[in-house]
Design a protein that fits this description.
disordered N terminus, 4 helices, 229 residues, 12-stranded antiparallel beta sheet, YmcC-like fold
Length: 229
């Protein structure tokens, strides 16, 4: 094994073990036994579950919905917070690690983001509601494909643009937002893609987003149902 592979595999083992711990402990955690209404993230065309505002209001946990492409919406609840990263858990063990609206880690999906390492400060952390924060951003993604033995590090360059004000309706509630487009380039994969973020015009909170987490399947669409306190 060459030195670069060894360095990546060590980093993958350390960071990947966190996802493994999350997934293994989820089975024993009381939380997972109580989320009986959660739905699996799949890639099949099925009707979305009957979420309602009343249903969401009665949930005892902070919650988001997520769907991949044309798949159904899945309920994820906030399981833990670590180093300002929120770990959102679905009943089938899918975990999304999110910080300030950015997906940093995934577990339980066919292709996995082991970790995201920013080279400079993520404009999302600064607040996308302010155009002066729409800076060039560079990050490394430790990514493991479905049939890969070891993950590889992918560098992504991105820039942001203001796309105007929009009203986003999330289960009967209208939110005034600013739409921000992130144009991303991963030269190593010859891959260009776009992420979209609908953010609060006063705080920069991300209420809705469409984010690519892998080239092999459609982007993840996330809506905040009940924000974390």
């Amino acid at each position: 094994m060459i030195k670069s592979q060894l360095q990546i595999s060590r980093r993958w083992f350390i960071r990947g073990s966190l996802a493994s711990i999350l997934l293994s402990s989820c089975g024993e955690n009381r939380l997972t036994r109580t989320i009986i209404d959660a739905y699996k993230l799949t890639f099949q065309d099925r009707p979305s579950p009957p979420f309602t505002r009343e249903y969401i209001t009665k949930l005892p946990y902070a919650s988001i919905s997520a769907k991949i492409g044309k798949g159904p919406k899945s309920l994820l609840v906030l399981w833990r917070v670590e180093n300002n990263e929120q770990y959102w858990l679905a009943a089938d063990g899918v975990v999304l690690g999110i910080k300030k609206g950015r997906i940093l880690k995934t577990a339980g999906l066919p292709e996995t983001i082991i970790d995201t390492i920013p080279i400079n400060t993520d404009p999302i952390y600064l607040g996308l509601h302010k155009e002066e924060n729409h800076l060039l951003f560079e990050r490394n993604i430790d990514f493991k494909g479905k049939n890969s033995t070891y993950p590889e590090t992918i560098k992504i360059l991105s820039n942001f643009s203001y796309e105007g004000s929009q009203i986003v309706k999330i289960y009967d509630i209208d939110f005034d937002t600013i739409l921000v487009r992130e144009r991303c380039t991963a030269k190593k994969l010859n891959w260009k893609f776009e992420n979209l973020f609908w953010v609060d015009p006063n705080t920069g909170m991300v209420w809705k987003s469409i984010q690519h987490v892998a080239r092999g399947f459609a982007p993840v669409i996330i809506e905040v149902l009940k924000p974390a306190a």
